[in-house]
Amino acid sequence: MTYDIVTQPWLYVINKNSQCSRLGFYDALEQGKHLNLAYPNPIDRISVFRFILAALYWCEMETQVKMDKAKIPQAWLKFLLESRHLFEFLGEGKRFLQVPGLSRRRPITELFHEVPLGNNFWHFKHVRDYTMGCCTHCAVTGTMRLPLFCVSGRPDMKSGINGSPPIFAIKWGKSLWETIILNWRPREPLGQPVWAEPYRYNPDDDVPLLSGMTVPARLLYVEAAIPTEQACGICGEAPGSLHYTCKFETAGTLENPTWQDPFALRNKDEVIKASDISGTKKLRFDAKIHRLLPHVLNSMDLNGGENVLLVGFASDKAKFVDIWEKSIRIPDIDLANLELTALEEWNHSINSCAANTYLGKIKTKGKDRLRVLKDAVSNDLLPDAETKAGRYIPQILGDDSVWDQVSNQYSVWVNNSARVLTAGLDTRHLRDRKDIERFMPKPRLDNKEDADKGSKTDE
Ligand SMILES: [Zn+2]
Questions:
Q1: Percent of the chain with pLDDT over 90
Q2: What is the signed CA dihedral for 260, 265, 268, 274, rounded to 10 degrees?
Q3: What is the Å distance from ligand 1's center to 131 Cα?
Q4: Which of 183, 162, 160 is nearest to 171 (CA)?
Q5: Where are the chain's structural domains?
Q6: How far apart are CA 266 and CA 285, in angstroms?
Q7: Cα–ligand 1 centroid distance for 133 (angstroms)
Q8: What's the 7 CA to ligand 1 centre distance in angstroms?
Q9: Residue 446 phi/psi, 5° resolution?
Q10: Neighbour order of strands in the sheet with 307-316
Q11: What's the chain's average pLDDT?
């Protein structure tokens, strides 16, 4: 069985007439002006696009034929066809992003964070080990994630060259070809992608662009598909045979502090990562797009009218916690004259405001009750305010006068926080509370006396 990803149809696309299809890499590039990538999961959209971009940098370098923004150079397509043996995904010989001779057998679902197994239950879809299979097309897509989106865990599993994945920011065009042009920024030294030359860099080496963009965080070997009538657990097609297992091992420590990922969002030198909000009880700070916006504008060399796709992947060691995406449309203005101070202050002012809605303390058994109340009110009302305020982002960039309307979106949260949390409950509040307490069911009685009374009443 052979399967080269240059000609085999694994890549999901949507045409301009809204029809979806599955194409080989070659066909997708040839028709790139008339289609776009069609992956509902942003992990795949970013991973597959990054593979395409790296492959084209490599084509330009190897063929010495320069990028032509009008259309993809025929010499590149010809070169890809001739190099098909490097993109062989199955078969006995050398395989694309895979290593023979591994020993640690794992279910194929290790390639897909959203179908976790074992005791990692808290996901939309949960399967038992080794019972869910996937088709070869989906296994290719899953493999594309390995250079970008990996969690870390035992035994000695590390999360790739970026460490835990950064927030990725990509300019997203109306077609695949437009997206390629918008993000076309090859930088020297290019080096070689891992399908052409094994990765050989230490964590403190300067890593060339193509090696760093393509190095997988795991050593992988996809085991043969087994005949079955079952449907693929990822795409739902039933091709007649599915992969159930793979060999899956650590690739060692790849995290490299000098590596600058071309798509990682940065604040000066610091790479910005998505935070795990599940353990903090601060769900109000879901994805703080307003916090990220100044960094997007500072670091991305944007032009008016462009679209930015932001993708955050939050993990807690071995656990995949959250994936989110956000598209930001940049208004058609001259960004060179944009004053960023107000945007930079936005996050700061929300934090200050949150601090001010907390004015007193009521201690109950070591807990600060007002603090708990304040968190509850903020968690309920702040995400709503931020979603509404976020809709003004394109206007904010183009017109300062919108700020009053943005501030207004926070008024419900601020008013309610103030009403609930201003220090001191008066005697009427306390009496009302006692009245309510009396009529509440008490599933667990705290002391013996109450328990006795309860049983008497029952008689
Ligand atoms: Zn599938």
A1: 50
A2: -110
A3: 15
A4: 183
A5: 11-163+174-250, 266-421
A6: 19
A7: 9
A8: 17
A9: -80, -30
A10: 168-171, 307-316, 319-329
A11: 84
